[in-house]
Design brief:
Chain lengths: 298, 358
């Protein structure tokens, strides 16, 4: 008996030791990956504070003292602020992103509500259509899209960037799944008996109940719209500087030969990702949970 | 006897509200997505201005490099050849870039997903690692492209951070007299630039794939893992015999969606080049090819853009159908089959009893 115990104990000991070494090795590997993930962003921030000549001469992992001068150059120098103006960029990006985020979540919730709550002939067909069109990528329709917008004289306006946000099939799908699990139809029935109009039922009962789903989708819609470079770049074709979004300005840095100060370039890139990084730091928990939810549905 | 009021209430139908609620979606969808798609198809049969019909001439030019001026085409055979060559080249680039980013990405994501979900490993700060690994995915791709262009700079006098690091390690030689570096051509070199783009794509997407696969692994019945560990299975055995087979539908789905995403690859290849006005030939993907054709202000080639888009659409459609097939609800289909079988048996029984229903 005692022998058995000893053998068992020994076995258990070696097992735990094995697990511990594996854990340690994996932790080291994860730390290496973390460094790879963060290093480009870290160098970006450090270089934004350094002088152009010192950036060209060597890598440093400590911040420099040139941040103030870089800021002055980027904001005041005519050569720089005619290519990249962070305030105009923020303003334009926020206008487009804000409206499209609100439109995406509101109208997707509305569409999902319509399909979930009411019974009508085309119900199943319309839902199947939504599922089918989820896969059609923007790149396929863009030639026809631009051609159509040129004919309507809507290029160089924000309408083609904001209005399409109303039809977001993937978000509708997500909202419908959410409603299936946590929106009982009895509530609609009860509201009707109390004399609540259909639209008001949706606005003042369904939307508050769907807050978690709306919040997650709003975050993703915001990030996707903020990062969008493809659509604005093909719709805003005239070179009107006042209209450009932030990613377009960043891409203009690369095409400009007047932008020669490395510190200012790094600072410009850093400023362009700043809002999105702040949002991520504050909401990362929800974002990760949202991505995981997206994976479960399959 | 029902009163008039009661009869009226009974006849209230809420169906019209259903249509009203889904109407905005479908109107916008029609104007901004469906009609553009149809318009793309129409354009593919028109000439470079998008005004006159030319039949299948665009497809002929793209596939076989044949084109004549008599077809209202404004292009000679030589231009058509260039267009065709360009298309095959960009398609090849897309495939190379996608394969080169998908293989490391799936290996990395799968191994990380397995390790993160293994319950008996004691790794501190799992939540933190997940958050950091997902971070690249939310950063503006255009900014990432410009950032890497700076980091991978190859100028002899003012190299980027990567070349400077390599020179510190002694891989890149530095001539102290002329202060010039013998830089690695990360931007203009064919293989080097492709590797950098593959790295960026992997860097951007592995966190996302990892989280998707993790939620897939967490969806597997935990009692299977428990039973395996009681029976003394090693981690490798558990991975090969339980995780991988049960994860295969999700893996297949990831593969197909990643392929569709790969066909759309645009921001990074479009911006990652040295010459300010010309996209690098080694990185030109199909999406960039289409974009350049319809975006060209001085000489737009709507017809070619349309035809190439249609081809891209067909490929996407095939891939989408595969994804749909792989992720279909197997239980549901089995049930349907069962029901059909029962119905058939009943029918036969009915026949046996001379068509009399029991």
């Amino acid at each position: 008996m005692s022998k058995m115990k000893a053998v068992y104990g020994e076995d258990k000991g070696s097992y735990t030791a094995k697990l511990r070494t594996k854990s340690i090795i994996l932790t080291i590997w994860f730390i290496i990956l973390t460094i790879i993930c963060l290093l480009p962003i870290y160098i970006l921030i450090i270089n934004a504070t350094r002088e152009s000549s010192s950036i060209a001469n060597g890598v440093s992992f400590l911040p420099g003292t040139n941040l103030g001068k870089n800021i002055t150059k980027l904001f005041k120098d005519v050569n720089y602020n005619t290519v990249y103006n962070v305030w105009i960029g923020y303003r334009n990006s926020f206008i487009i992103t804000g409206f499209s985020t609100v439109f995406t979540v509101f109208f997707s919730a509305m569409t999902a509500y319509g399909i979930h709550v009411y019974d009508f002939k085309l119900k199943e067909i319309s839902y199947t259509v939504i599922l089918l069109v989820m896969m059609v990528p923007m790149q396929v329709t863009s030639a026809g899209f631009v051609n159509f917008m040129l004919k309507l004289h809507l290029t160089d306006t924000y309408w083609p960037l904001i209005l399409p946000a109303i039809a977001a099939p993937a978000v509708v799908y997500f909202m419908r799944s959410y409603m299936k699990s946590s929106f009982p139809l009895d509530i609609v029935e009860a509201a009707r008996i109390d004399g609540c109009s259909e639209f008001r039922t949706f606005v003042s009962i369904a939307i508050p109940m769907m807050k978690p789903a709306i919040a997650v989708q709003a975050i993703f819609a915001f990030i996707a719209s903020w990062n969008n470079f493809y659509t604005p770049n093909m719709i805003l074709i005239s070179s009107k500087f006042k209209q450009k979004t932030l990613p377009m300005m960043v891409s203009a840095i690369q095409a400009s030969d007047k932008f020669t100060d490395y510190g200012a370039i790094y600072l410009a890139i850093a400023l362009s990702i700043l809002p999105i990084v702040i949002i991520y730091v504050l909401l990362s928990r929800f974002i990760i949970a949202g991505v995981a939810l997206g994976g479960v549905k399959e | 006897m029902a009163s008039a009021a009661q009869r009226r209430i009974k006849s209230i139908s809420y169906a019209k509200y259903g249509y009203l609620f889904i109407l905005p979606f479908f109107i916008v969808y029609f104007f901004f997505q469906l009609w553009p798609l149809i318009n793309t198809f129409i354009l593919s049969f028109k000439d470079y201005t998008g005004d006159n019909f030319v039949g299948l001439a665009n497809y002929k030019a793209i596939f076989r490099g044949i084109g004549t001026e008599t077809e209202g085409f404004k292009i000679a055979d030589r231009t058509a050849k260039a267009i065709s060559k360009n298309f095959y080249h960009s398609f090849g680039n897309t495939v190379i870039l996608w394969v080169g980013n998908f293989i490391p990405q799936i290996i990395l994501s799968l191994s990380l997903a397995v390790w993160f979900t293994e319950a008996n490993l004691k790794i501190p700060g799992k939540g933190f690692f997940k958050i950091v690994m997902y971070l690249p995915n939310i950063i503006t791709a255009a900014s990432v492209a410009v950032l890497f262009l700076q980091l991978c700079g190859e100028a002899e006098n003012t190299p980027g951070a990567l070349n400077l690091l390599l020179s510190k390690m002694g891989i890149v030689s530095h001539d102290t007299v002329s202060d010039k570096y013998d830089t690695v051509k990360f931007v203009t070199g064919t293989a080097q630039s492709r590797v950098v783009v593959m790295f960026i794509q992997t860097w951007l997407w592995f966190g996302n794939t990892m989280i998707m696969l993790m939620s897939g692994i967490q969806g597997i019945n935990p009692s299977l893992f428990e039973a395996a560990s009681i029976d003394g299975a090693t981690a490798g055995q558990v991975f090969r015999k339980i995780t991988l087979p049960l994860l295969s539908p999700i893996m297949a789905y990831t593969l197909v969606t990643s392929m569709i995403g790969g066909l759309q690859m645009f921001d990074i290849p479009y911006l990652y080049h040295k010459d300010p006005n010309k996209v690098s030939d080694n990185l030109k993907t199909v999406a960039v090819y289409i974009y350049e054709y319809f975006h060209d202000q001085t000489d737009p080639k709507m017809g070619f853009a349309g035809a190439a888009s249609v081809l891209l659409f067909i490929v996407t459609l095939i891939l989408g159908c595969i994804a749909f097939y792989l992720t279909r609800d197997k239980d549901e289909i089995a049930k349907k089959k069962q029901r059909k079988k029962v119905a058939k048996q009943l029918k036969q029984q009915n026949k046996q009893f001379g068509g009399l229903s029991i």
